[in-house]
Amino acid sequence: MLKEIIQSLMKDPEAAQRLKNGRFELAGISEVEQRALLDALEDTNRVSKAGELGAWDTVKAAAAL
Amino acid sequence: MGARIDIIDESLSHSLTEMGDRMEDLAESVAKEIRGGVQTYFALPHLYEQATACVDEKLRGSLPFARLTVLHYRAFGGRGPAIYRAAGAIELMILGADIVDDLQDKDNNLTAWSRMSPEIALNIALGLTLISGQMLLASEFPLERIHEAVQYMNTQSLTAINGQTADLLNDIQSEEDYLRMIKQKSAAFVVAACMIGTLLATGEWNSHVRDYAEELGIADQIKNDIRDLLDWERGDFRNRKKTLSTLYLLQYIAEEDQWIADYFEGRLRMEEIGHRREEFERAVERTGTFLYTSVRMRMHCYNYLRIVDKLNIDVQWKNRIIALAK
Known about the structure:
Structural class of chain A: mainly alpha
Helix content of chain B: over 70%
Strand content of chain B: under 5%
Shape of chain B: globular
Number of strands of chain B: 0
Number of helices of chain B: 16
Largest interface: A-B, 31 and 41 residues
Number of domains of chain B: 1
Low-confidence stretches of chain A: 46-65
CATH topology of chain B: Farnesyl Diphosphate Synthase
Largest sheet of chain B: none
Largest sheet of chain A: none
Oligomer: heterodimer
Number of helices of chain A: 4
CATH architecture of chain B: Orthogonal Bundle
Number of strands of chain A: 0
Distance between the termini of chain B: 26 Å
Shape of chain A: globular
Order of helices and strands of chain B: HHHHHHHHHHHHHHHH
Radius of gyration of chain B: 20 Å
Helix content of chain A: 55-70%
CATH class of chain B: Mainly Alpha
Structural class of chain B: mainly alpha
C-alpha cells in the first residue's frame, strides 16, 4: 500500500501538499510508515540528491571526530 | 562484507569523553592494540608491511565500530582500558571482511589492498580475521565473557559470509530476500560491535541491543544502496545488484524505460547504456525511488529509536545511543 501511495504522490505533485495539510488520506499503512512518509516529504533534498536522505546525513553532518 | 558505516556522531564523542575516553585517546589506544596484533602475527616482512598499509588506511578512518563497542561497554557499566583491545579486534574483523568484499566486487580502486596483488590481499584478510580472534582471546576479561564474545564474533562473521555469498549470487527476487541478505551481510557487524561491548560489560545477552543494532545496520545499508544507485562507476550498478531501490524502480519503470530492466536482466551491456545516465536519473525521480527508499530507511531508524527507548540504562547513555540516529 505504501508503494501505491507513493505512486499517487509522484503522479500528482499537489497531492504531497494535500498530504502535508492533512487533506490526503493515508489509509492502509502503519503509523510508522505514515510518520516516515511525512518526514521524507519534508526533506526537500530527498528526491534530487541521493546522498542526502535525512536522519543519517544529519549524523554525518554533525561528525566532528 | 560491505561493512562500511557512517555512524560518526559528535554526541558519541562527548559521551565517551565524559567517561574518560577522550576521542584522541580512544583512537590511539585502539590503534595501539591493532598495530600490536599485526606486529605479533605477521612475521614475514613483506606481509607485515603490506598489512600495515591496510591497517594505516583503516586507522585514517573514524573507527566507528570500535567506538560503538566502547560506547556500549561504557553505557552498560564497563570500566577500564581492557575494552580497547576488544574494540580493535572488532575493527580488524571488519577490515578483513572489507578487503574480501573489495576483492570480490572489484569496485574500489582507491584502497591500499586494491593496489597490491589479490593473492597477498587475500592472505592479509585471512590473517586479520584470525588476529582479531586472537586479540579478543587475549583480552583482560573474565574467561567466560571472552568465550562468549569470541563465539559471538565468529557467529556474526559467518552470518556475514552467508549474506555476502547471497549478494554475490545476486539472486534477490523480492524485498524480503533483500532484507534477509543485508541483515546478514551488513547488519551482522553492527550487531557484533554493539553486542560484544554490552556482553563484556555485563556478561549477559541483551536482546534489545541486538534488535536495535540490526535496525541501525539495515538503515545504513539502505542508505548506501540508494547512494550507489546513481554512481555508475561503483560495482553495484555495474554488477546489476538488486537492492530495495532497484527492486522498486524495476517495478514501476515506464514503457519507454524498459531498457533499464533489460540492463538489470543482463540483456544489455554497460557499454550499450553508458550514454543514458540522465534518462536513468529521470526514471529514478519519476518513479519516486528516492522517496520510497527514504521512507523505508526512516522506518528502520524509527524502529531503532523505539527499541533503544526500552533500554534500562542511565538516561544520559540512552540519549547518547538515541543520538546516533538523529
